[in-house]
């Protein structure tokens, strides 16, 4: 349910469970985290989904089994954040719930026009992943982060672009080619050069608060 393609220094990682809106199981989370750890040598990583939804979040059957409070979500976000190369979330559709974490941990996010973004933790009675509120607020500001996390509001692609949650809106048939074009300079640079620039950008961000509990 996780497909990986490698070409020209770019790893393209695809959630491939379109019949279930790419809802994530524990097995998929483990595979994703392991793939991200193995991608340390990649010049760039593109994370995308099959079908018309990037991910609906956690699989409902898995939620009933306790997946919503699993540390695997945070392990995946940490593995994405630790990538030394450029990471790009190429969002082929809606991004919801716990799947938000891996996209927030990417360096860049682009999305198709039909994409919507929501994180209904308040309604469902769960806390978000510990690092997600900080990353979300760093992108869109504390008030808009509360709009999503506490008021349960959805953002469409245009509003997400204006808020800073995504960097570009791209038509579906050009999504992956645009992601590869964005990765071109990082692929052409030496890995050390890319890593240093990424670290310099990261140092400009405020320190994250200590991780809490689910």
Fold and architecture overview:
It is built from ten helices and ten strands. Helix 1 packs parallel to helix 3 (72-81). Helix 1 links the parallel strand 2 (10-15) and strand 3. Residues 207-214 have low confidence and may be disordered. The strands form two sheets. The protein has a six-stranded mixed β-sheet, with helices on both faces. A four-stranded mixed β-sheet has the order 4-6-8-9. Helix content is 41%, strand content 19%. By secondary structure, it is an alpha/beta fold. It has helices spanning 26-38, 60-64, 72-81, 100-104, 121-124, 132-140, 142-149, 157-163, 175-188, 191-203; strands spanning 2-7, 10-15, 44-49, 53-55, 86-91, 94-96, 108-111, 116-118, 155-156, 168-169. It has one domain (2-203): 2-enoyl-CoA Hydratase, Chain A, domain 1. The protein is globular, with a radius of gyration of 16 Å.
Write the topology of this structure.
Layout: E1 2-7, E2 10-15, H1 26-38, E3 44-49, E4 53-55, H2 60-64, H3 72-81, E5 86-91, E6 94-96, H4 100-104, E7 108-111, E8 116-118, H5 121-124, H6 132-140, H7 142-149, E9 155-156, H8 157-163, E10 168-169, H9 175-188, H10 191-203
Parallel strand pairs: 2-3, 3-5, 4-6, 5-7, 6-8, 7-10
Antiparallel strand pairs: 1-2, 8-9
